[in-house]
Amino acid sequence: MGTSDLAKEALRIAGTAGLSKDVIDLLKEKINLLDEKVDDLTSENSSLKSENYDLRKQLESLLESQSDGTSKPEGFDDTTDAILKLFFDVHDSIPAELIARELNIQTSIVRYHFDLLSEHDMIRRMQGGTRGFVSGVASPAKYGLCKAGREYVVKNLI
Fold first, then answer.
1. Can you spell out the DSSP letters for the chain?
2. With pLDDT > 90 as the criterion, what percentage of the chain qualifies?
3. Phi first, then psi: what are they for 131, rounded to 5°?
4. Which of the two residues, 13 and 125, has the higher pLDDT score?
5. Phi, psi at residue 51, to the nearest 5°?
6. Choosing a second label site near 52 at 20 to 30 A (CA), which of 2, 17, 28, 101?
7. In this predicted model, which residue has the larger pLDDT, 70 or 23?
8. pTM for the predicted model, two decimal places
9. Contacts of 94 (CB under 8 A, 6+ apart)
10. 141/125 Cα distance (integer angstroms)
11. Burial level of 31, CB count in 10 A (0-12/13-18/19+)?
């Protein structure tokens, strides 16, 4: 027996118990208001359940796209992908200048992408970036591919 049914039964009993018509009318009005409120809350609950279901599906979809490696990290573009692929294909550490020549872009752009890739632990500085003690000639810093970088290339670029 629901709340509304209990209230109606209480009204029936009140009527047989000799309560005044004003009290019974007031109770009936209260019951009608409560019935309307229950209907509103039931409708709102149904709407919230539907919205919750939709949001769960969206979250599952987002989590799935992240876990399968198909989404690019923020800031990655075709140049970033080309640099990673080059690291992957060379199997060795590479200086920024060589990549710039190979991709026909400015060295500063390559360094920008190196910073981005380093932040995502996809490459790391392997050696160099100092001047030789005797010759005074600069040896360029070399970078190499890390595990996360290899994984990204395999999942997204091959």
1. --HHHHHHHHHHHHHHTT--HHHHHHHHHHHHHHHHHHHHHHHHHHHHHHHHHHHHHHHHHHHHHHHTT-SPPTT--HHHHHHHHHHHHH-S-EEHHHHHHHHTS-HHHHHHHHHHHHHTTSEEEEE--EE-TTT--EE--EEEE-HHHHHHHHHHT-
2. 49
3. -90, 140
4. 125
5. -65, -40
6. 2
7. 23
8. 0.53
9. 86, 87, 142, 143, 144
10. 7
11. middle
* The pair of three-digit structure tokens given for residue 94, joined into one six-digit string: 């590479």
Q: Which two tokens stand for residue 36?
A: 């309307």
Number of other CB atoms surrounding residue 95 within 10 Å:
19
Q: Are 110 and 99 in contact (CB under 8 A)?
A: yes
**Band of pLDDT at residue 64, cut at 50, 70 and 90:** confident
Confidence class for position 156, pLDDT limits 50, 70, 90: confident
Amino acid at 149: G
